[in-house]
Amino acid sequence: MSTNVLVCVKRVPATGSRITLTDDDLHIDTKHLGFTVSPHEECAVEEAVRLVEANGGTSVVLTLGPEAAEEQLRDALALGIERGILLDTDEDGWDGASTAGAIAQAVREEADAGTPFDLLLFGNEAADSGDHQVGVRVAYALGLPCVVGAKSLEVGDGVAVATREVAGGSEVFEVPLPAVVSVKEGINLPRFASVPGRIKAKKKEVVRRPAAPPPPAIETLRLRVPPEQRSEVRILGSGAEAAPAVVDVLEQLGVVAG
């Protein structure tokens, strides 16, 4: 059974970058930042490629963001995704609800154009905001079953079987297609783009559609960057002379009795 897969990604500051805010504390200052997609979404892209390789069908990657976000779409195309969709917007005010609404509308338009999707893949959460509600909201808007936090996924015979980890074991969900699944980092090991893959990606189709956010239901008052957790090193001594100091530290930590 062939599987048409849509994988949704988000342009985020490169993982590990030092985050600073604009003067009004309302936005991340991106002047000196590189961009990528979230680690969970890298795994979602890889999972989409593997499913189509195994079952046949088509794979499409979608993102909502500025014109520069086409870079992240091209990265996914270089890994084997066949086509990209950019919901083009330079406007602020996109929250989880409005983003999900725009994605759901794009899915409907693709179905009307003759490309209905059997599976919608999301990363479990975004690396910048930690927001994990978009996939759930898209599923609700489209009336589709949804599984979040999947660490394994199998598709066949009109169903998707997703497994997620819970305390002391795992849960297995079997849902009919079409369905929405958000995956977690570790479900697979994402491949690296090859040079031929990057050359092919330049020629693949990326469709641009304008997207305007509705009035936000939630107003952002300010952002706050948590203070850095600093560590320090204390030299206790060297050789046998340091042994009493080591014992004192272990007693302070409660590792050994005084």
Explain the overall architecture.
By secondary structure, this protein is an alpha/beta fold. It has one domain: Rossmann fold (3-Layer(aba) Sandwich). It contains six helices and twelve strands. It has helices spanning 39-55, 70-78, 96-112, 134-142, 195-203, 243-253; strands at residues 5-8, 12-13, 35-36, 59-65, 83-88, 119-123, 146-150, 152-156, 159-166, 169-176, 179-183, 206-210. The strands form three sheets. It has a seven-stranded parallel beta sheet with strand order 7-11-6-1-4-5-12, with helices on both faces. The protein has a three-stranded antiparallel beta sheet with strand order 8-9-10. Strands 2-3 form a two-stranded antiparallel sheet. Helix 2 (70-78) crosses helix 5 (195-203) and helix 3 (96-112) packs across helix 4. The protein is globular and about 75 Å long. The model has no long low-confidence stretch (mean pLDDT 87).
Features:
alpha/beta; Rossmann fold; 7-stranded parallel beta sheet; 3-stranded antiparallel beta sheet; globular
Architecture blueprint of SSEs:
Layout: E1 5-8, E2 12-13, E3 35-36, H1 39-55, E4 59-65, H2 70-78, E5 83-88, H3 96-112, E6 119-123, H4 134-142, E7 146-150, E8 152-156, E9 159-166, E10 169-176, E11 179-183, H5 195-203, E12 206-210, H6 243-253
Helix pairs in contact: 2-5, 3-4
